[in-house]
Amino acid sequence: MHQTVSDQEIEEKLSSVKKKIAIMSGKGGVGKSTVTALLAIHLAKKGNRVAILDTDFLGPSIPKLFGLDSANVGFTDKGIEPPVTKKYGIKVLSIQFLLPDSSTPVIWRGPMITGVMKDLLGKTDWGELDYLLFDLPPGTGDAPLTLMQTVKLDGVVMVASPTELTSLIVEKALNMARMMNTEVSGIVENMSYFRCPHCGEISYIFGRDKAKRLAEKYGLKVIAEIPVDPELAELSDVGEIESYERDYFEDVSL
Ligand SMILES: Nc1ncnc2c1ncn2[C@@H]1O[C@H](COP(=O)(O)OP(=O)(O)OP(=O)(O)O)[C@@H](O)[C@H]1O
User: Fold this and answer.
1) Residue 139 domain-assigned?
2) Number of domains in the chain
3) Which three-class secondary structure state does DSSP give residue 44?
4) Contact criterion met (CB below 8 Å) for 90 and 50
């Protein structure tokens, strides 16, 4: 790949996409990719045409969630053709599909990340889409900056776990979106509580209402509170996240 994609080419490629939403987090490991996948599944179940661009180049995890580890992209006159997920036909593009094997590390500095991001934006043939979700790497680095500078996003969903919600890291990410004039659609609190599988009692193991307090401070909504659920972790591990039946986004409109 090379860095010859113009902003106009990117605009053309994204002109058939109705809504572009980025999923962001302050820190790694809070479940951002899991939330991206669950959100995509929710939207697809509602009859929308949905795609995910995995922009976490240094640690791509979207393919694994959908069992697409060994998927290949197609190449046509119109550009890169992303593979689709088994159950809901969600289009997925990840740098992992373009690497020789999935254990090859991506060792790139900022300019390379910017170049590859623009390449993927300008060369992927998404077709008609209702939603394109961008799974961003954690933090406020090169990938979110390039995306927010290059694409007019319709919203950013901030994913946080209760343990990091009291630190400044989530606020930094929220402020980055604001500084880039990107609307924050709301906060998803992941690993919010645990429901006992025997008696159904809910325990707020990491503290309660942290997302609500942060949302109030910034005049935002809490979009969803997702519990720690071993079934979700297990299905994700074996590439079957589409078989997870609970939907935490029922009342959400993006
Ligand atoms: N609600 C949940 N219940 C149980 N396990 C979860 C939940 N959310 C995420 N996990 C598990 O936590 C781990 C990290 O999740 P995930 O990869 O989605 O995080 P991430 O924020 O995208 O991480 P990174 O930024 O490193 O890519 C995974 O093993 C995932 O299955």
Assistant:
1) yes
2) 1
3) helix
4) yes
Nearest-atom number in ligand 1 for the CA of 65 is 31
Q: What whole-number distance in Å separates Cα of residue 164 and Cα of residue 193?
A: 14
List, for residues 13-65, the tens digit of each pLDDT value.
999 999 999 999 998 999 999 999 999 999 999 999 999 999 988 888 999 99
Ligand 1 atom closest to 35 (CA) = 18
Q: Give pTM, 2 decimals.
A: 0.94
ipTM, two decimals, is 0.97
Instruction: Give the integer Cα–Cα distance in Å for 34 and 160.
Output: 12
Name the residue range of residue 237's domain. Answer: 7-243
* CA gap 89, 74 in Å, rounded: 15
Question: 234: CA distance to ligand 1 center in Å?
Answer: 11
Nearest CA, atom 12, ligand 1: 31
Give me the CATH number covering residue 76: 3.40.50.300
